[in-house]
Design goal:
Layout: E1 2-7, E2 13-18, H1 24-30, E3 50-53, H2 66-72, E4 83-85, E5 98-101
Parallel strand pairs: 1-5
Antiparallel strand pairs: 1-2, 3-4, 3-5
The chain binds FE2/S2 (inorganic) cluster.
GO molecular function, one term: 2 iron, 2 sulfur cluster binding
Keywords: 2Fe-2S, Iron, Iron-sulfur, Metal-binding
Family: Belongs to the adrenodoxin/putidaredoxin family.
Length: 107
Amino acid sequence: MAKITYKHPDGTETVVEVTAPNTVMRGAKLNGVEGIVAQCGGSAQCGTCHVYVDEGNTLPLPEMHEAEDDVLYGTASERRPTSRLSCQLPVSEAIDGLVVHLPPTQT
Ligand code: FES
């Protein structure tokens, strides 16, 4: 289980506990976190689960694969160096305390 913090563009935040083998995207959907659309259901095709990993993050996240990189070029909100697809971030105890920022829009 990992505690994940989703920071919204208006400055508020939602903190939820997510169990493996879910993803950061799935954790948002299961807990009704606004701001994650996830139209493709997690197959790294839609880009509507875009998040910005907190700049101070030191937790181990998987390397970005080519498909994720390609999709991130087409997201509705600007791509930044910290951009990731939350459906490609698996939850484990190793990322307990992860903070992600939600973009202004996903579509
Ligand atoms: S849910 Fe579609 S790319 Fe992540």
